[in-house]
């Protein structure tokens, strides 16, 4: 089983005797998974030697997920629900969860039960040992198809080869994060977020816990091959400038080959006289160099598009409403307007 440690040291900061653990669960079109997830989490955490809250991030679902979560917040005092004004994506939902979590540590987990809630207790135990980040590392990927296994392995190898930040292999978003790591991530100003990379970038004491990921308990995955491709592209562009360097090297190589070819033509013309160039070879050369130029422009465009998004400084997400109980003040419904959310998240 592949394993990875960000470092071997442990934090010497004392942990609270009875900490508050925030469970952050992003939701998008998961109406069939909400109830089984809540039941499984409660069964695991009831009677634990720590307090907990469950924070659902409702990411603009088009089904009955919002109604399920609101109903849950009215019957379970430890549940809060952050409702987005529209779908902003999982990375934004994770950012919102870290913004609104109140725990001494935060556990990020999916609601499809492929991230086993039973591991939360082990995560907390490792956290108490001194690790600020405890992540789930998949012991095998037999539940995935062959194409997904190969593409995932290729992504991790490519990312770790070209980026200074190294991702734990076969580790997703399922992890526990200490409060000081949460504060560090919340302080980052960037809008285009690749959370797996940001978790690794923080660089605090970390350790992996191996587990076997089961099949989905309900619903269907929201990640198509195209979405996964774009997700991988976001990660590479966010944490490496290697694609830009690669095309610089390609340009140098092509220029060198062009110089050699031009020298051959000059010498051949001087010795044998002027000949009529072939149409086919000329067309091939034009198409080849045209495609190289378009690809290089596309690589530049990926970086420029992210600069464009950062310069506009739009908030990562907008909150429509917040439902649930306040642990200090009792049950109630809290409402945050879009204007207030914009002001808070834009840093103005």
Principal-axes shape call:
elongated
Radius of gyration (CA) equals 25 Å
Q: Sketch the topology as an H/E string, one letter per element.
A: EHEHEHEHEHEHHEHHHEEH
Number of separate domains: 2
* Uncertain residue segments: 327-348
Strand order of the largest sheet: 7-5-6-4-1-2-3-8-9
Fraction of residues in helix: 40-55%
Q: Can you tell me the CATH architecture of the largest domain?
A: Alpha-Beta Complex
Describe the structure.
The protein has 2 domains: 235 residues, Spore Coat Polysaccharide Biosynthesis Protein SpsA, Chain A, CATH 3.90.550.10; 71 residues. It is built from 11 helices and 9 strands. The protein has a 9-stranded mixed β-sheet with strand order 7-5-6-4-1-2-3-8-9, sandwiched between helices. A hairpin with an 8-residue loop joins strand 8 and strand 9. The C terminus is likely disordered.
